[in-house]
Write a structure and sequence with these properties.
The complex is a heterodimer of chains A (144) and B (315).
Chain A lengths: L7 E6 L3 H10 L8 E6 L7 H9 L4 E6 L10 H18 L8 E5 L5 H18 L14
Parallel strand pairs in A: 1-2, 1-3, 3-4
Chain B lengths: L1 H16 L5 E6 L8 E5 L2 H4 L2 E2 L19 E5 L1 H12 L8 E5 L8 H6 L8 E5 L2 E6 L2 E6 L6 H4 L11 E2 L13 H7 L3 H12 L7 H5 L24 H14 L9 H5 L7 H15 L27
Parallel strand pairs in B: 1-4, 4-5, 5-9
Antiparallel strand pairs in B: 1-2, 1-3, 6-7, 7-8
């Protein structure tokens, strides 16, 4: 148990948050290495299926980040996404699929490398506090 | 409610004779009690088979998407709201439609009746006034209609159609009621208990998709459950797959569900699937002040945004 490290999937939008991760990297900022980044064209691209699939495959946390509202490369992608996320998070926690502390959302622009590193630390800390995911993992069929 | 059957038949006959519509969508008597079947009357003679009573709960708006030609449809409150959703989503044009609005007193739940009969089989059922009289071999019993309503009908706040060309019958009084008592109870449980509650709720699910098929809002050309490349949803009855299915089904009708209760009525194993959709309905109302299908002037909530939308999910 003591050597458990959380696995976290981060869906980052190409134009802002992915840029922020890049900036955090070239600025040599330290943040825990538990996140696996998946680059998406826009936070509006995030489908609830992706998040559920990630949890079903056994990740301990999911972090979704995009441009600040109003700064979307596609003008309004994240404004639609915002409504989707609000319903998604409340519904996931209501049905008990995701315990509080496993699913995180943020808006981070490509100039905010320090904020990215800080948010990464917060996400990892919160997922560590929630512990290893146990309930919503699909067991692979055992083949004789 | 018999007089209503008469007025539907009359209106249907008239519309078909005048060739105002190609067909009238309504109900006819099913082969067993408490089961009326959806019916498309295409000739004035067929219009004579139309009926209306407390077993017309299925949402007829389900038969509208992509329909060609003109059609009349019998619509109670929830059906009319689903029709508004279809109009907003360009599934049918208003010119094609002739809506026979029906003020609704709620529909009876066949499960509630079965619960009270201890396995005795009903051979005949009749509705008169506020009573439902059922009879079978060696027994006859009468129930208050108000006690037998479907759960969604008991908390309905749109009994009168929101859109119609012709109203059959007198408008009924709308009730002022807190629709979310049940949801509030679940919300107040600790997270762990909520998870167990929903695990148990969907445990009997056999993944027949009857809830999806009965839903007027589910008309995607390829449903997410049928997608195979990539396959986002496993096709097994593994608990995670079942949970995913119920979650996504509800999410797909967020802000579009009119709580007609067709899904719950269609479920062969009696899962209260409305507990998923009701929470989203509540959330949409609280965050965006939107009620599905009440007005044609506003886009559905997930197809719109405001610059100052709340962001309760951040962090």
């Amino acid at each position: 148990m003591s050597d458990w490290e959380p696995k976290i999937i981060a869906f980052l939008c190409n134009w802002c948050s992915y840029g922020a991760a890049d900036l955090a990297g070239v600025s040599r900022l330290q943040y825990p290495p538990n996140i696996r980044i998946i680059r998406v064209p826009c936070s509006g691209r995030i489908n609830p299926k992706f998040i559920l699939a990630a949890f079903r495959h056994g990740v301990d946390g999911v972090w979704v980040s995009g441009c600040h509202p109003g700064d979307c490369h596609y003008i309004e992608g994240n404004l639609y996404a915002r409504r989707k996320f609000a319903l998604l998070k409340s519904q996931l926690e209501y049905t008990g699929i995701v315990e509080p502390g496993r699913l995180h959302f943020s808006w981070i622009s490509s100039a905010e490398g320090t904020i990215f590193a800080e948010m990464a630390r917060r996400v990892v800390g919160s997922v560590v506090a929630a512990g290893p995911a146990q309930h919503f993992i699909k067991k692979q069929a055992e083949v004789a | 409610m018999q007089p209503c059957s008469e007025s539907i038949r009359e209106a249907a006959k008239r519309l078909l004779l005048e060739k105002r519509v190609d067909a009238v969508i309504g109900f006819r008597k099913g082969t067993v009690p408490f089961m009326n079947e959806p019916f498309l009357a295409r000739t004035p003679e067929q219009a004579g088979q139309l009926v209306w009573d407390g077993n017309c709960a299925i949402n007829l708006a389900n038969y509208l998407p992509k329909r060609t030609g003109s059609v009349a449809i019998a619509a109670k409150g929830c059906d009319s709201r689903s029709i508004v959703i279809h109009l907003l989503e360009n599934q049918i044009r208003r010119e094609q439609l002739y809506v026979l609005g029906i003020p609704c007193q709620g529909m009876t739940d066949k499960r509630r009746i079965a619960d009270r009969l201890n396995g005795r089989q009903v051979l005949q059922a009749e509705e008169t006034g506020g009573k439902v009289r059922v009879s079978g071999r060696d027994f006859e019993q009468s129930f208050e209609r108000a006690d037998l309503l479907q759960e969604n009908c008991a908390i309905c706040t749109h009994k009168n159609p929101v859109l119609y060309d012709e109203l059959l019958g007198q408008p009924v009084e709308e009730q002022q009621i807190d629709r979310y008592v049940e949801i509030g109870k679940i919300e107040s449980m600790p997270p762990e208990q909520r998870r167990l509650y929903f695990d148990e709720l969907v445990q009997p699910c056999i993944r027949c998709y009857a809830c999806r098929n009965a839903c007027p809002a589910c008309y995607c050309p390829t449903c997410f459950v049928d997608e195979s490349k990539p396959q986002w949803l496993g096709k097994t009855t593994d608990p995670t797959d079942t949970r995913t299915f119920h979650f996504l089904r509800a999410f797909h009708v967020a802000g579009r569900c009119t709580d007609c209760g067709s899904c719950e009525r269609a479920c062969p194993v009696g899962i209260k699937v409305r507990l998923f959709t009701m929470k989203l309905e509540k959330q949409v109302k609280e965050l965006y002040g939107y009620e599905a299908g009440v007005t044609q002037d506003e886009r559905p909530p997930l197809d719109a945004f405001r610059p100052d939308d709340p962001e309760p999910f951040l962090g």
